[in-house]
Here is the input.
Amino acid sequence: MKKFNIVLISLGLLFGFAGISSQPNISAKASNAVTTTSPYSVTRFSSATKKVAYYSDPKSSGVMWNFDHTKILHNLKSYPNTTWFVKNSITLQKGSSKVVYYEVYNPSQSVDGFVWRGYLKKGLNPSYKGKKMLAVSDYSELQASKFFGDNLKALSQLPADQFNYLVQSEVKSKNDSVNKIDSKLTNAAKLMVTTKVSEAKALSTAKAATTGVKKYTAFRGSASVNPQAFWLTQQNTDALAFYATLIHQTLAAVNMSGKSQKYGFYVSPNLKDNYHPNVVLLVSQN
Here is the structure.
């Protein structure tokens, strides 16, 4: 008989780079054009570990978008002398097409947005005549901490399924020979969060439970990973790493026997407190 542990945890929060080169099929002018919903899904979110400089062609027709790609913020040609620094790299997907955008900001951090990476060239802007800057440098602790918080907030504003896809991908990227993610348990966790059904109903609907399952045990408690402590240990901008660490440490705490176990989870962001979203984690121990 399998034993299911249902772990409800409150999360608390942190930041590498992607590939794919394809020009976006977008014709947009520098008005603040707005669409109500994004035609793209975010399928990868990767954060810079250092400040790396880029610049655009002064004649570029490129534009800068908001995160969910629904509003044009700026025209690149309006910033012919600006050196940009990359904060994050995201992969956007529409159908079978994928395109990579860089989130960039200017040195004063007064301008920030997402630009198709094909519009950018690596290095300091040769037209810039101001204060000397480095093409590559480390973040200050204050800046890295701020960007960590910014990334938590940005991720929490994604559609729930996109957000969970990114978190699950990050969790899967950490090789784990004991704990194996299970799609049925993940679907059951999603049902518990999105439809508020009981544990038994969610497991049954997701076909995660078998006729031999008779008992469920619920554990309710605070997060096992403190976001401030995590930040002091890691001191980088990788917000997804926080979620992966929380899931893996919770799995280790639940698995007292050290035997292999299957699990699934679903995260519900807290828009009022990005440091403490809610997570339903289901664990099946053989």
In short: Residues 6-21, 26-34, 211-223 have pLDDT under 50 and may be disordered.
